[in-house]
Amino acid sequence: MSLVQVLPLAMVMITGPQILSPIFLATSEQWRTNSTAYVVGASLSISLVVTVAYLLGNRLSGRGPLLGTSVRQLLYVAVLVLLLYAAVDTYRKRTVSEPPEWMGKLTTATPRFSFRLGFLLLGFFPTDVVTSVSVGTYLAANGDPITDATGFILLTLFILALPSLGVLVLGERAEAALPGIRDWMDDNSWLISEAVIALFVVMTLQNLFG
Q1: Which of 112, 102, 125, 129 has the alpha carbon at shortest distance from 24?
Q2: Euclidean distance between CA atoms 114 and 110, whole angstroms
Q3: Inter-residue contact 68 to 147 (CB < 8 Å)
Q4: Crossing angle of helices 172-209/126-142, nearest 10°?
């Protein structure tokens, strides 16, 4: 997958509590181990969902035409449906009156809690499941190898690691800036998600009708 495709999808993956959590963890008592555990948990769950979707897509592709329509086209339709669901779900949840209760525990989180949080948020959060499944299905539809998902996974993990990397490099200056970044992301993440979902919808439509 090209950078034009990978970057928007990575942004969809991290907007919302997915990026807010590592910002909190970067200022926690055990920020180094907590941040590392969070990213490792995220890497496992993202890889798992993408791989399962890819294998299922490849299995369907090997069955030839279905109902007069090629399986590749059906896979593109599936990607399109998933993306539209993600767009609707993101818009529906654009305003949240109160942060989730578990977010209050992040400043005193343990590495075990951080690992579990990264695994669950990036692997089973609705919009992330949809995005990871879209990536796996998209690669299967194009006949591309699963290794083409590496860029998407690594870029997502790099963005998740940015808060802790900022604290590591900039120290107190990063700690002072993170709350403002967190608040901005909390207010505007849904707009970013909608924009990049729309971009990938356009690319999927081009493949479907191209």
Answers
A1: 102
A2: 6
A3: no
A4: 50
Do residues 150 and 2 touch, judged by C-beta distance below 8 A? no
- How far is it, in rounded angstroms, from Cα 139 to Cα 146? 7
Residue written as tokens 């690319």?
Answer: 203
* Phi, psi torsion values for 143, nearest 5 degrees: 70, 25
Residues 128-158: tens digit of each pLDDT: 887 888 888 888 877 889 999 999 999 999 9
Q: How far apart are the first and last CA of the chain?
A: 18
Express each pLDDT in 93-128 by its tens digit. 666 545 556 666 777 889 999 999 999 989 988 778
Enumerate the domain spans of the chain: 3-209
Kindly report the three-state secondary structure assignment for every residue of 163-203: HHHHHHHHCHHHHHHHHHHHHHHHHHHHHHHHHHHHHHHHH
Question: Which 8-state DSSP code applies to residue 26?
Answer: T
66 forms beta bridges with: 69
Q: Quick one: angle between helices 126-142 and 71-92, nearest 10?
A: 160
In this prediction, residue 207 carries a pLDDT of 66
φ/ψ of residue 66, rounded to 5: -135, 120
Place of tokens 């941040």: 35
